[in-house]
Amino acid sequence: MHSDLKILVVEPSPDKARDIIEALNEGGWTDVTVVANATVLERASQQENPDIILIDLCNPDRDTLEHLSEVSNARARPVAMFVDQTDEALTQAAISAGLSAYVVNGLQKDRIKPVLETAIVRFKMITKMQSELDAAKQALMDRKIIDRAKGLLMRARGISEEDAYALLRKTAMDQGRKVIDLANALVTSADLLK
């Protein structure tokens, strides 16, 4: 695991904060900033731009979970939250909020390193899946636009689908453009002419 990670810790107890820093240092992580209050999390996140955030809460509620997820930017970086107790609704809210790790029964020094490592791996896996999903959605949208452009050419010129695609490709190459860009322009133009 990377030892050069910048870690932001939210921990109100100075004694627990020392234990967390010690556990992180033992795990090879030395770039650690601690804030005592979740109310300064957003500002600290912006100033420090941490690679991962560790939050220790005793008894969170749904609003607190959602707020902390939002201000820590849990969709852009791994966020691990340790809580003393939870229920099904809070666990579901934590998952929906995008937390990379939601650990019940409080923060224990010997669990910090493996939980953060798991949170990092899980975050990377979810980020990769989201990127693949976004790429698949974009490819599907592009395919629909290209198919629509081919349909326009087939009707206008009385040519086959293969010929319409060949014409799109040749024109795009001649103009130094992507097929999707040309198809988009053709569909937009056709919409304007309606």
Outline the fold blueprint.
Elements: E1 6-10, H1 14-26, E2 31-35, H2 41-48, E3 52-57, H3 62-71, E4 79-83, H4 88-96, E5 101-104, H5 109-157, H6 161-175, H7 179-192
Parallel strand pairs: 1-2, 1-3, 3-4, 4-5
The radius of gyration computed from the alpha-carbon positions, rounded to a whole number of angstroms, is 25 Å
User: Poorly predicted ranges (pLDDT <50, ≥5 residues)?
Assistant: none
Helix count, DSSP H or I runs of 4 or more residues: 7
- Main sheet: strand order: 2-1-3-4-5
Could you tell me the mean pLDDT? Answer: 87
Largest sheet: 5 strands, parallel
Could you walk me through the main structural features you see in this protein, from its secondary elements to its overall organization?
- The chain is of the alpha/beta class and 194 residues long.
- The protein has two domains: 6-107, Rossmann fold; 133-192, Orthogonal Bundle (Arc Repressor Mutant, subunit A).
- 61% of the residues lie in helices and 13% in strands.
- It has helices at 14-26, 41-48, 62-71, 88-96, 109-157, 161-175, 179-192, and strands spanning 6-10, 31-35, 52-57, 79-83, 101-104.
- Strands 2-1-3-4-5 form a five-stranded parallel beta sheet, with helices on both faces.
- Strand 4, helix 4 and strand 5 form a beta-alpha-beta unit.
- The longest helix has 49 residues, at 109-157.
- The protein is elongated and about 80 Å long.
- The model has no long low-confidence stretch (mean pLDDT 87).
